[in-house]
Design a protein that fits this description.
11 strands; about 35% strand
Length: about 250
């Protein structure tokens, strides 16, 4: 299968399917609007934690979804769109969508990125002696976590990094929740996590990798051979503090 280099609804659906599987979200689709029911952070009954996802949506579709969010403050909107022909300054795309929808930006300047999985290493990477890899295998998705050993100056059994990958339709590898502890950054753990997850996904002969990259991770993914094909903006209710909303890449252990 040729590697997709443009942002299509099929690609977005594959990403959403893998992400929903990893995060245990309920995913539904109506026309070109996807909706995922998120797992509530608290045990409060009646929480309405839906997020809508649209790809290259028309203004009419954006207005329909924005109307639902204005009526339901805990919901949020994720917009994925083709990259502009000319590079935009930071935050410009988010502000444009905010003006169109009257919603508040939550996540800005994120990117849809893809890679040819045939160019990734099928072998598990060598793990430095100060860390140990813990792998959890689930139905069509994997988790890898790196903890410190006695050889680490930080002491043993500290969670240093973690990531997840889902296999979708035997073709796509969807990477999600890639995280490195602030105490262990700039030690190559981000690269190690991605390479380890790639080796797990390639057990299923996947062809294309997908992820949403936050600003801090974009340089790493580009270094590892990933290519940006779309912008991602997350919007929420204008009266809800962004700190109280979910963002696409937020993850703490």
């Amino acid at each position: 299968m040729p590697i997709t280099t443009s942002l299509t609804d099929e690609l977005a659906t594959a990403w959403l399917t893998g992400r929903a599987r990893i995060r245990n979200y309920h995913l539904t689709t109506q026309g070109n609007i996807h909706a995922a029911l998120r797992t509530p952070e608290s045990a409060e009954a009646g929480e309405d934690l839906w997020e809508y996802v649209v790809t290259n949506a028309s203004d009419d579709v954006l207005q329909v979804v924005a109307g639902e969010i204005l009526k339901n403050p805990t919901r949020q909107l994720i917009i994925a769109a083709d990259l502009p022909e000319e590079t935009q300054a930071a935050g410009v795309t988010a502000r444009a969508y905010a003006e169109k929808t009257k919603l508040r930006p939550i996540g800005v300047d994120e990117l849809v990125m893809v890679t040819d999985m045939s160019e990734q290493d099928v072998e598990e990477p060598i793990v430095p002696e100060q860390f140990t890899a813990e792998v959890v295998r689930n139905d069509d998705w994997y988790l890898v976590a790196f903890r410190t050993t006695e050889e680490s100056e930080a002491g043993p059994d500290k969670l240093a990094a973690r990531g997840r990958v889902a296999v979708v339709e035997g073709t796509y590898a969807v990477f999600d929740q890639i995280w490195t502890s602030p105490d262990f950054r700039r030690q190559g753990l981000g690269s190690l996590t991605m390479r380890y997850l790639s080796s797990l996904a390639l057990e299923s002969d996947v062809e294309q990798g997908l992820l949403i990259a936050g600003v801090e991770g974009q340089a790493l993914y580009s270094y590892l051979g990933w290519t940006a094909i779309g912008d991602v903006v997350v919007l929420g209710h204008p009266d809800v503090d962004p700190k109280d909303q979910w963002a696409t890449q937020t993850f703490e252990p």
